[in-house]
From TrEMBL:
Organism this protein belongs to: Aquimarina muelleri
Classification via Pfam families: MFS_1
Gene3D superfamilies in the record: MFS general substrate transporter like domains
GO CC entries: membrane
Protein name: Sugar transporter
Length: 446
């Protein structure tokens, strides 16, 4: 039932690893990149609560409750993934990011609810960690695609303002994997019907309750959910900073190959044209390597999730302490980027970040699902997404630029800000006191 997340993560990894590169290739200034990314959190803020609410009120004997949304999102996401690297202008690429992120969110939110729908409380840590394992596989493979395709002989060079063919091929492969993996889940996974079908049909017929229901659920969210929201705020501020600024930060600070500015070259002189093309190809190859190293955090999260999968299938874990330690280690990974002497050390940095990522994708959802009404799981998961998208919106509207420039003008300082933010998120775990959220003993459930 979680296999479709492989495709979703192909979409997210290609978006997270290479969207800033596409923006830079199309002429975006590095300080404008976070604002161009605002499409991602804004669409999540709007789409996820709506899809969660609608999927809670959907039932088809053939298609179930969540699967129709998987399928719609997969078709739209695959189309957007294929088209985005072919954007001829910056504003078109930004528009495709809106479509892509909205479509991915249509598929993603019901996947979270599906795990909670189908698994008893005793298996939810196991279920969300297994989902994280699949996400890690997708992150690693997708992040390596442009580099791998380049190694196979596909060109990294391209005229000014044109995305290289290696990136276009990678996004096309991602679109295909997205669609196939979602179709696999749709056609091989069954769903449980509502326990009380008569009451379910009665609730479906009630109209004009959408906004009031959303607001009521926001107003009555459990205290544990609010505390988890604070942790999520600092966690996702950190990762948005990485996705939007890692490419300019690392190509400049680690690889010493910043994106060339065409106005700095006399394009009427053949030697200057050659120099520009050489610098641009070097930037594109460095960007391939940034994506490849970013894939390490997917591999690391996969290994971490694998260990947790084996452990949580047999014994209980303290979700609070696992999440705290993982986030702090991830913060150290971000900060280490400023000090590493060569690109090879990025493997170490992103390995630590992967521990945080693996925990972010599992522990908060396991803690939350043990603290809310199962009948409202879809809408609650959608509302919980607010604590993911609000920090990203704040970061995109200037928060990340303001924060890192308090340290210095170099873009690498954004990675230090991400590290500090992740450490704060880890320390906020001391606020979680709900025993059901912190741990669940499988033996006590038998």
């Amino acid at each position: 039932m979680s296999f479709g997340f492989l495709g979703i993560q192909f979409g997210f990894a290609l978006q997270g690893g290479f969207m800033s590169r596409i923006f830079q290739t199309l002429g975006a200034e590095k300080d404008a990149i976070p604002l161009l990314w605002i499409a991602a959190p804004l669409t999540g803020l709007l789409v996820q609560p709506i899809i969660g609410y609608l999927s809670d009120r959907t039932w088809s004997p053939r298609w179930g409750r969540r699967r129709p949304y998987f399928l719609i999102g997969a078709i739209l996401s695959s189309i957007a993934l294929f088209l985005v690297p072919h954007s001829p202008a910056l504003w078109i690429a930004a528009g495709f990011l809106w479509i892509l992120d909205a479509s991915i969110n249509i598929s993603m939110e019901p996947f979270r609810a599906l795990v909670a729908d189908k698994l008893p409380d005793s298996q939810r840590s196991y279920g969300f960690v297994t989902q994280t394992l699949i996400i890690g596989i997708g992150t690693w493979i997708a992040s390596n695609l442009p580099w791998l395709i380049s190694q196979m002989g596909v060109s990294d060079g391209a005229p000014t303002g044109v995305v290289p063919m290696s990136v276009k091929v990678a996004f096309a492969i991602g679109a295909l994997v997205f669609l196939i993996s979602i179709l696999y889940t749709v056609f091989t996974t069954s769903e449980y019907p509502p326990e009380d079908m008569e009451e379910f049909e009665k609730e479906k017929k009630q109209k004009n309750k959408f906004v009031s229901d959303i607001l009521n659920n926001i107003g009555s969210m459990p205290l544990t959910m609010k505390k988890l929201g604070l942790i999520q705020f600092f966690s996702w501020f950190a990762f948005f900073t990485m996705w939007s600024l890692a490419n300019p930060a690392l190509t400049e600070h680690i690889f010493k190959t910043p994106v060339p500015i065409e106005s700095a070259y006399n394009m009427d002189v053949p030697e200057s044209v050659i120099a520009f093309e050489t610098a641009n190809t070097a930037f594109q190859k460095a960007s391939n390597n940034v994506g490849r190293y970013m894939g390490v955090y997917g591999l690391s999260s996969m290994a971490f999730a694998l260990l947790l999968t084996f452990y949580t299938s047999r014994k209980r874990i303290n979700r609070k302490w696992v999440h705290m330690v993982s986030l702090i280690l991830g913060g150290i990974g971000f900060i280490s980027m400023y000090y590493i002497p060569s690109p090879q050390w990025l493997t170490f940095s992103f390995s630590l970040i992967g521990l945080a990522w693996g925990s972010i994708l599992s522990m908060p959802y396991a803690m939350l699902s043990s603290s809310v009404d199962p009948k409202k799981m879809g809408v609650i998961m959608g509302i919980f997404n607010m604590f993911i998208v609000i920090p990203q919106i704040i970061a995109a509207l200037g928060g990340v630029n303001f924060a890192y420039k308090l340290i210095g003008d170099e873009t690498i300082n954004a990675m230090i800000v991400a590290g500090i933010s992740l450490i704060i998120a880890g320390l906020c775990n001391v606020l979680i006191t709900n025993k059901d959220a912190i741990t669940y003993n499988p033996k006590e459930a038998i």
